[in-house]
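Quick one, tokens below. Sequence please?
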């Protein structure tokens, strides 16, 4: 088993599949009484659960066992819609109730750390909606707990599993763009109004939106060595559909620069005041939202990195732009929990790693520190991924 920094990995053809053999033993192999599927408990039965559960229910590796929400009517409704036998109003009763193996956490981002910690402590594996926790230190400590308890934690974004990501990584690996030194990505819309948490302490456009682009760019260009950023709150109050007027304290406008080493610099911007000709609807974004530029070529990802539509490529050898990876090949942003169940069940690892998620949280925390102190912030974390021998 060879472990490499992702910077080395992008120049290694062996790294270009979306899955590799895992160092983590499969759940099935490790269990004394092997089940036929991963038993799943879902916590958080709001907006995103309706998108997640059809994919998860169709997975041959998952069985929906429990639904939990502090608003019991939501858990009841999800249970009815997806035929989930057990319903709970909070994590404690869910963990003490019907047995399950994998927690799928779809709650407010401020709740992730506490709920993921409780699940890991009681021996569950965890798939968390973005982010796994909302600070670098908290995510590090969750990962340490998972390792201590020999449990598995992974989280959204799943962008590194897309065929568009694989195509771009392969183009970089084969040096189609020559010397790559610059990249730009952006993601914004006019703000989620169904839930207040995105705008409150521990939320923000960096954690909710830029997290996708930062994951993609660090995945392609390697870990950031340092970060500088500016963030602001443009709209100090908003109307949330559920709780009425709220104070906005988390960034709703952000721009950050990452230094990936060897002269490579990338830029990410996110915010909740971004007009879209087609609104923020999956499948309707036809512009490029991410571009990578080299001395001998340029590539643009059409659509979002979480919902890629194609990759446009122009090179010195073939200067007229050609469109690639038009088919999603089964990739969709709702597939995270299904990937988790499959990976745990079969032992195949994912390019989605907890170390990468921890690094992305350090980048985001550094962006906030950079804004507060008006300075460049050096980062400590790196991530590696394993290439099966
Ligand atoms: N909505 C989207 O399009 C979208 C897309 C991708 C990711 N996400 C992520 O999914 C997560 C959930 O987002 P959402 O839009 O579904 O929010 P939501 O507010 O619609 O749903 C969250 C649900 O979690 C429940 N909840 C909160 N704390 C809880 C606790 N301690 N125990 C049990 N239940 C609890 C709430 O009652 C609510 O029903 C967030 O992390 C968000 O960033 C959302």
């Amino acid at each position: 088993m060879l472990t490499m920094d992702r910077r080395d990995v992008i120049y290694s053809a062996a790294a270009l599949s979306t899955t590799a053999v895992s160092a983590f033993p499969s759940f099935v192999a490790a269990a004394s009484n092997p089940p036929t599927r991963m038993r799943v408990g879902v916590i958080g039965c709001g907006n995103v659960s309706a998108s997640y559960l059809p994919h998860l229910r169709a997975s041959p590796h998952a069985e929906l066992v429990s639904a939990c929400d502090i608003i019991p009517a939501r858990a009841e409704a999800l249970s009815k819609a997806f035929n989930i036998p057990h319903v709970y109003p909070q994590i404690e009763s869910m963990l003490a109730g019907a047995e399950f193996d994998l927690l799928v956490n779809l709650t407010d981002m401020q709740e992730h750390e506490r709920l993921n910690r409780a699940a890991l402590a009681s021996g569950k594996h965890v798939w968390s909606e973005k982010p796994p926790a909302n600070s670098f230190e908290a995510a590090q400590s969750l990962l340490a707990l998972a390792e201590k308890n020999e449990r598995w934690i992974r989280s959204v974004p799943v962008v590194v599993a897309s065929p568009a990501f694989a195509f771009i990584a392969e183009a970089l690996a084969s040096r189609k763009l020559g010397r790559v030194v610059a990249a730009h990505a952006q993601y914004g819309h006019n703000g989620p109004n169904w839930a207040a948490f995105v705008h409150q302490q521990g939320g923000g456009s960096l954690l909710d939106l830029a997290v996708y682009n930062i994951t993609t760019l660090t995945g392609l260009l390697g870990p950031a060595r340092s970060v500088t950023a500016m963030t602001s709150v443009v709209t100090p109050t908003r109307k949330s559909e559920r709780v009425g007027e709220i104070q906005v304290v988390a960034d709703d406008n952000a721009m950050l620069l990452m230094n990936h080493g060897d002269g490579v610099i990338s830029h990410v911007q996110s915010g909740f005041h971004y007009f879209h000709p087609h609104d923020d609807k999956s499948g309707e974004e036809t512009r490029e939202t991410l571009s990578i530029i080299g001395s001998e070529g340029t590539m643009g990802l059409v659509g979002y990195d979480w919902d890629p539509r194609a990759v446009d490529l122009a090179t010195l050898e073939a200067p007229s732009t050609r469109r690639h990876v038009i088919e999603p090949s089964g990739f969709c942003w709702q597939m995270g929990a299904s990937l988790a169940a499959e990976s745990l069940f079969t032992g195949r690892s994912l390019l989605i790693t907890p170390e990468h998620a921890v690094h992305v949280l350090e980048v985001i925390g550094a962006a906030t520190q950079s804004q507060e102190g008006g300075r460049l912030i050096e980062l400590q974390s790196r991530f590696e991924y394993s290439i099966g021998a």
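The pocket of nicotinamide-adenine-dinucleotide is lined by residues 43-48, 68-71, 74, 90-91, 106-109, 111, 115, 129-130, 194-195, 208 (CB under 6 Å). Confidence is low (pLDDT under 50) at residues 1-23.
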